[in-house]
Amino acid sequence: MVPVPKIDIPSSKSITNRLLILQQYKNYHIKINNMSASADSILLQNCLQQISQSVPSPFVFVDNCGTAFRFLCAYLSFTTGEWILDGSPRLRQRPIAPLVETINNAGGEIHYMEKIGFAPLKIIGKQWHTKSFTIDAAMSSQFVSALMLCLPFNAENARIVFDKHIPSFQYINLSLKLMSQIGLNIQYKEGTIYYHHSNELLQTHITVEADWSSAAFWYLYVGLTGKPLFINKLTKSNIQPDAQMVEFMENLGVATTFKKQGALIEKTKPMPKYIETDCINNPDWVPVLTTLCVGEQTQARLFNIKNLQFKESNRIEALQKELAPFATLTWSNDTLTITPHTLTFPQQHFFHSYSDHRMVMALAMLKHQIPQIEFDDKQCVKKSYPDFWKYYNQLTW
Fold first, then answer.
1. Please, where are the H alpha helices in 302-382?
2. Do 221 and 262 fall into the same domain?
3. Residues 242 and 203 in one domain
4. What region does 297 belong to: left with phi over 0, alpha with psi -120 to 50, or beta?
5. Using one digit for the tens of pLDDT, what is the confidence trace for 246-256?
6. Based on the domain organization, do 59 and 168 belong to the same domain?
7. Is the domain of 96 the same as that of 234?
8. Under DSSP, is residue 51 helix (H, G, I), strand (E, B) or coil?
9. Using CA atoms, how far apart are residues 372 and 118, in angstroms rounded to an integer?
10. Are 144 and 113 part of one and the same domain?
11. pLDDT tens, position by position, 150-193
12. Residue 220 is part of which domain span?
């Protein structure tokens, strides 16, 4: 019997990045074990170290890290000083207005230095005494998380009010669960976050879980190749939204068996010829599901995906362009319709990367169908998964 290959995945950058912000509060003593080594987490950590220096540099550069952009926009507003927050040309295209408007309406002071609604920002940080924030989070749940993570820096007990029917709500729940886990008095009820200060000195050690967002690409590998794979240290999670991949992929013929050392992923039955799914809580699945449908000749409708326009690339447009030789992808009324039209794939193909880690990792899994795949920027995967190519190249296709 051929042994099942084993791979490692990184620890969760979503968890790591939230803990890095919470770690800045003077009453916390949080030790983060198994911290993410992703480029995004290292960037955020370096920015926070720069900000905390006795003579800090006022210019904070976040490259194309949307998480750092949103989290630091809020954090710097609560950090005394004058700051310039900027990033790459692509980051300057990623909207920030709802968060800026909320902070300014609550008594903060953020100025647009060039185009209204976008970086670069001039932020005047100060001590806050605010009791309520109201925010439009339709564009990004991270706007809410950014404010939540800063509530301990506010002098007053406070609440955050937002529309509960928003995309990626489960990432707000991730922030809520992490804050509760370290002992903070925070609750959610019907579209409102309630936070109450505690006088207790919080001391805790947290071990960051393996990253389910990265695991999704190996489910794609199993789905497209039919070959089993063992993911070391991958465990069930009740806080990471992408852990729902287990139940979802089982319906598509890819099963998960949890063992002491990790998780065995196996293809158990053919994929359905048509699927339809709401991606409102898991938008990062869209490149994975689209690639799976194209490789498996499955028609699909993926809806509630409009926020993919504001990721590292416009992922809707990028998927349409890159997969056009193999499928017709139509986006209308916030629904992506996938109609594969290629039964025979070429021996080789070139894909544009758009400097987007998730696009590259998803499209790379078509190697079973297209033996020679090239990209213009393979290394952008370091943003979330520095060792991706190491394990990719060890596998048989």
1. 315-322, 357-364
2. yes
3. no
4. left
5. 999 999 999 99
6. yes
7. no
8. helix
9. 39
10. yes
11. 999 999 999 999 987 888 899 999 999 999 988 899 999 999 99
12. 212-394
